[in-house]
Structures are given as structure tokens and as C-alpha cells.
Amino acid sequence: MSFSQAYSSGASLPPYGQSSGSGLGQSYAAGSSEAARPPSYKTVLLGDASVGKSSLVVRFVKNTFSDTMETTIGAAFFTQALQVDGRTVKFEIWDTAGQERFSSLAPMYYRGAAAAIVVYDQSNMASFDRAQVWVQQLQLSGNSNIVIALAANKMDLPHKQVDLHLGRQYAEENGLLFIETSAKTGQNVQQLFSMIARRLPEKPVGAQGLGGGVHTIKLTDEPAVQSQAGGLASKFACCGGSS
Fold this sequence. Notes:
Layout: E1 40-46, H1 53-62, E2 70-72, E3 75-84, E4 87-96, H2 106-110, E5 115-121, H3 125-139, E6 147-153, H4 164-173, E7 177-180, H5 189-199, E8 236-239
Parallel strand pairs: 1-4, 1-5, 5-6, 6-7
Antiparallel strand pairs: 2-8, 3-4
GO molecular function: GTP binding; GTPase activity
InterPro entries: P-loop_NTPase (IPR027417), Small_GTP-bd (IPR005225), Small_GTPase (IPR001806)
Keywords: Nucleotide-binding
């Protein structure tokens, strides 16, 4: 299959809890046997605000892009399965907030993760510096088996502050996967997840599943609201799309 298949609780997973559209994938029918379910791998996206983390995930899951992508508050949760090299790998993706005030929450998202995607904006040197801090945190987290990919996003922009060689060299020196991407055009987004899938073990290490749907960690004292997908309802703030 040339595109990913989306697996959720009885419906294709729309971005941020919106109603399901045509999308890329086919839903995994509720009630199917557990044996038919593909293995799930917790994956976390890290990086500064506005580097395009949410746009990358939405491009991967729904093959769409919006210039008015809403800023993530806390973290949003997506599921998407990908067929690669004759096997199906199901990603359970935590798209984390990039704002500095939420950085202390990051360890709760990458704890026990099978893979991490650290994203920076090629037109913003500060975001590359910050990406290196995220990589260091992951390396010090004690999870020696985690697969880390460094994504040089916004390759579609004409003016860049971070030379591609600089990012590639850093990745090689730290044992990271490396690829440049554009969530806006979709270039290399599928390849990003495919290269991670090829590095993942055939069986996940430890329990990681949260089931289908969209989930958000609440940062207020308000009661949790159940979404139609069965998870916590998404809570987002103001707009600001990123490629």
C-alpha cells in the first residue's frame, strides 16, 4: 500500500478531534481480534514552538496541511499505522507543545517511548540549538533503546539559517536518523516515519498503548471532557500554522 493506514477506535482518526474526512487510511474495525492488531510503538515529537511538529503529524496521518494550524497546548495524541518491508507498524504519536513554559512536562511524554522525532526549522538557528538540547535530554533519559530522528523541517522555504550539512553532521555524531522535510509540500514526511519503522524492533518493549482516538493532557483544574473518540477532548489555543 502506498500510503499509511489509520487505525483507531472504529473510525479513521481526524486531526485534533474533527470529524473524519476522506483521509488516507482505513479504520481498524472495533471488535476485530487482538491477534490482527499491529504492534504499537509510542512515538514523541519534540522541538520549539512553530517548527512544524503538528503540521508534520497531520500531514502523515491525514495528508493535509493548513496555514492556520492551532498551537498545541500540552500534547495531542494520534495513531497511524504504516506498512513497511512487509510488516505493519502502528505509531502512537504524542505531539508535544513547544512553548518553553511546557518544557518541564516533556519527560512524561517521552518516558517509555520507542521513538522520538526532534524537529527544527531550517530557517531558524535558535530552533536547531534547542533541538540539540532535546536530543541531550533524550540521551540522558536512561532509555538506551529509543530510536531518535532529527527532522530538518521547512525545506520548502528559500531562505535558511541552518546549513543542511550542519544538521546531518550533528546527527551522525550522535547516532541519530536524519532527514529534511516539508509538512507544507509533504516532501519526505512519509519517508521520515518509514525510516523510523525500519529501526523499531518487531515487538514493542513494554506496554505503551493508549488505544485509538485523540487525547490531550489537561493543564487546568477543569473537569476532563470525553471526546467522541473516547479520549480526553483536545484543548488548543491560538493559531499559527507551520510548514
